[in-house]
Amino acid sequence: PWLQRLLRFATASTLTRTYADGSMEHVSSIPRPYCSVHVRWGSKGVEQQVLERFPWIDAICRGEGEQTGPELVRGLQRNDLAGVAGVSFRSNGRVVHNPDRPRLTDLDSIPLPAFERIELKRYAGYGMVTSRGCPYPCTFCSVAPVWNRESHSRSAQSIVAEMKHLHRVAGVKLFLFQDEFFVSGKQQVLDFCRALGRSGLDV
């Protein structure tokens, strides 16, 4: 009973096929009688094959998960996923794909990560995501289609506020920008550089 309470829902997240094997191995080891298994999948167009191949996966959350994730949990609690946008799941033996959820455009509205749960001082640097998406159709890239070839960025004030917080609480001086398209526009980069210069951060 204690395990059942602890493992009500289990999730894994993977952005591309490159990292899928590790995620699949991880969630396949979870004891099925105790929980429902769900995957946050970035790659597009493979949900049908994944749900058909891996019967121990109950649902796939497609794309961004900030809104879909909580709605998925609430839908599972009432045993009804029909109204949850951005989810693929099984119903009566067949795979159902709900309509896509619109992209998040106001990235400043997303709260900061739960830094209090991480021992930040153990790390030499900190990875930051200041934007999502890239508009270019490079044939070798699997990331741009995940974001529907749209690029949305946080404001310079939001980015610098996160940097100041990390520097204050953990002394972080090395920030690793992990965007697909950080240099998305001259004005955006200049705004960031000016805001960083005004901040007084010694980084």
Summarize the structure in words.
The chain is of the alpha/beta class. It has helices at 2-6, 20-28, 47-53, 68-77, 156-170, 186-199, and strands spanning 9-14, 36-41, 59-62, 87-91, 94-97, 126-128, 131-132, 152-153, 175-177. A five-stranded mixed β-sheet has the order 1-2-3-4-5, sandwiched between helices. A two-stranded parallel sheet has the order 6-9. Strand 1, helix 2 and strand 2 form a beta-alpha-beta unit. Helix 5 runs parallel beside helix 6 (186-199). The chain is globular, with a radius of gyration of 19 Å. The model is unreliable at 1-7 (pLDDT under 50).
Please specify the SSE layout and strand pairing.
Blueprint: H1 2-6, E1 9-14, H2 20-28, E2 36-41, H3 47-53, E3 59-62, H4 68-77, E4 87-91, E5 94-97, E6 126-128, E7 131-132, E8 152-153, H5 156-170, E9 175-177, H6 186-199
Parallel strand pairs: 1-2, 2-3, 6-9
Antiparallel strand pairs: 3-4, 4-5, 7-8
List keywords for this structure.
globular; alpha/beta; 5-stranded mixed beta sheet; single chain; 6 helices; 30% helix
pLDDT < 50 runs, ≥5 residues = 1-7
For the biggest β-sheet, the strand order reads 1-2-3-4-5
Biggest beta-sheet profile: 5 strands, mixed
- Average of pLDDT: 81
Number of helices: 6
Q: Nearest-angstrom radius of gyration?
A: 19 Å
- In helices, the fraction of residues equals 25-40%
| CA distance, first residue to last residue | 50 Å
Strand content: 15-25%
SSE ordering: HEHEHEHEEEEEHEH
